Amino acid sequence: MPGNEENTPRINNEITSSQVLLVDENGVKVGITGTIEAIRMAQEQSLDLVEVAPLAQPPVCRIMDYGKYRYQLQKKEKDARKKQKVQELKEIKMRPKIDDHDFDFKTKAVRQFLEKGHRVKVSVFFRGREMSFLERGEEVLNRVMAECEDVGKSESKPVMEGRYMRLMLTPATGSTSSKPAAKPKGEE
């Protein structure tokens, strides 16, 4: 039964109120009517009486084709899910003594993730005695922030979590791929 779930409206005999504010299938307000009379009017037109505003006094009910109404709602939800952009969380791990080539390679990956609209967690892992040189990890993360400031922004300062120093980067609003914009086609 459709009325058993919390978020679905009650229809026809599931409506418990004795009187309802009736709206016909064309959206015209009929007025306050007895529930039994409203159900009879809906059945005469081979339609359903659907409670659209149950908290109103008296509840507002509308005469409509409930199956068609549910189909249209499902279609709208499906379209909304299609247009929704899923923002994934990507993670890049580095070390405090990272080589320049490795740094450039990983920073390039961070930039690509940000340009695609993903959030990126950049982590620096410390082993053994490296824990006494936390400023090196912070320097690495600050370099990453500086390299990616045109396509993303930092949510906060680098944070220590156990043996990891982490930094969260989010895409800059309205950012698009800035690399092609840097080189106009006429100047190659």
- The CATH homologous superfamily of the largest domain corresponds to Translation initiation factor 3 (IF-3), C-terminal domain
Low-confidence stretches: 175-188
Overall CATH architecture of the largest domain:
2-Layer Sandwich
Rg, nearest Å: 30 Å
Helical element count?
5
Number of domains: 2
Number of strands: 9
What percentage of amino acids are in beta strands? Answer: 25-35%
Mean pLDDT: 81
N-to-C SSE series? EEHEEHEHEHEEEH
How does the overall form come out from the CA principal axes? Answer: rod-shaped
The largest β sheet comes out as: 5 strands, mixed
Predict the CATH topology of the largest domain. Answer: Translation Initiation Factor IF3
**Ends apart, CA distance between termini:** 67 Å
Alpha-beta classification: alpha+beta
Helix content range: 25-40%
What would you note in describing this structure?
With 188 residues, this protein is α+β, with helices and mostly antiparallel strands. It folds into two domains: 2-67, Ubiquitin-like (UB roll); 89-175, Translation Initiation Factor IF3. The protein is built from five helices and nine strands, in the order ββαββαβαβαβββα. β5 (89-94), α3 (100-115) and β6 form a beta-alpha-beta unit. The longest helix is centred in the middle third of the chain and has 18 residues, at 66-83. It is rod-shaped and about 80 Å long. The termini are far apart.
